[in-house]
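idk why but the lab printer keeps eating my pages so im just putting this in chat instead. protein + adenosine monophosphate:
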Amino acid sequence: MIIGIDLGTTNSLVSVWGEKGPQLIPNKLGEMLTPSCVSIDEDGSVLIGNAARDRLQTHPERSTALFKRYMGSERIVRIGKRDFRPEELSSLILRALKEDAEAYLGHPVTEAIITVPAYFSEAQRKATKTAGRLAGLNVERLLNEPTAAALAYGIHQREAESKFLVFDLGGGTFDVSVLDLFEGVMEVRATTGDNFLGGEDFVGVINDLFFAANQTALRFKKEALFMQRLFAAAEQAKRQLSKEASATIQFSYRDKEFSLTLTEAEFEKACAPLLVRLRDPVERALRDANIHPSELDSIVLAGGATRMPIVRRMVSRMFGRFPSVDINPDEVIALGAAVQAGLKMKNSALSEVVMTDVAPYSLGIDVSKRLSDNSLSSDHFDPIIERNSVIPISRVKKYFPITDNQAYLELNIYQGESRMVKDNIKLGSLRVKLGSGPCEENPVDVRFTYDVNGLLQVEARTAEWANPYTLIIEGNPGILSEQEITERLAAIASLKIHPRDRIESRTILAKAERIYQQLLGDERVWLGQQIFMFEQALETQDDKVIAPAKTVIESVLTEIESQNRLQPTPDPSW
Ligand code: AMP
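predcted complex ->
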């Protein structure tokens, strides 16, 4: 059985191709969305999901979120007394989802399809595959998120021909894909995006407005706890503005009260630079796909940030019609991953569906150009695979050394669209030994092979040497070596994971602690007593004692939340 996983910046979901088609799998709490948050409990055990998200506010130094943004980089996150790579944190989320799937399906799961932003780079994709390995999952395929969204929609309209554009604005990334569905063939015609644009940037706008209106708060800008409170309040305000015409941020810090009231119109105005940035990838995708906006049958929204009315209005204005929202934008990618899992398992219900995808970037090498005065101009980008080529693809190009008897040819490999390599992203380099003789007799065939997972292999072949040189990504600190992966596997195996059967109680406790911190006076004292009683019940480890105590504390929390109009913890955005 292959499971589908949407490993999101803020929330993750797991799914499977079931008897009735794509199906989401609930976590231990019965919820489909598992917050992509990790926390280390006081006893050293790892907490994932809701409890970890609540602890971001109560124990920021022991908790973390949004690490998907750092996948493929060497950034280390310290929580508690341990350092983690982004792959390891992601692997802890994957492991929790794997366990949820195993509990639901009743058998072990070892294979998964994991979705990634279409615009994820080579290093980010490799890091995602590594995260899968660290979680004990064989990653059958990395599936581009907008392609997954399109699969979820396309599966319902297999008979008709349709062209659609997927507008996927998640927490940290923006992806656009144009797809053509024709006689069961789902063809991705073009994919573009922006890896640094997402819902969090809209929270950033609210933060800036907050500091502009509360100059005295500027001195707390470096204090983690203050920033956690502000971000949580700003995130809440952003969501409020998805439902109401205005929102108020209000919180106290070190006995000072801070507030900001914001109308939707003010928010929209301040977000104008971000909204403008959403246009460019859409236009580029349509141009690359050679499709006129009027030819599109539907515009599909994916990603939680498309819930913002200011974004929906912008999309409607851009296309002159309303987007489709038949499937919940939080769930559409995971459902598509399940369709892909069904395809992989060659499920008979899907036997007539074929899917093709494209390379999101151009891939090539740096070359020198000879100018008219015979001098050389270096560092030009020469694409070998052009963006939006159908994948898998293999292309070969011939290159010549610059001088006669040149000993080596240094191939530097880049991805990107700029003319000069300095503006593109370097993926690695390959040093090719050359034979002696005049340069025109010493060509090197450079072959780029890009697979369906978006991973690149580079080969260089000379007439002189029988065996081709294959790419070794050198000095790319964002990618773990085999030896490092083995070391990290051992480190993860030594982690104590919070027992699954106690997750529910631990989650309630984390939520109670968060609410306790928000209260003052008698109510706070009273909740403190209730928490203490619940902890006492938990210590008995007797279900007969724990179950009624759980009912009591849950009703206490519901009552406090409704009386104080406290909102559930919003997704983290820092
Ligand atoms: P995703 O990565 O698809 O889970 O998207 C998460 C992003 O969606 C985060 O930036 C959330 O703040 C944002 N988001 C989720 N729900 C809402 C909402 N109701 N209004 C505004 N933004 C939302």
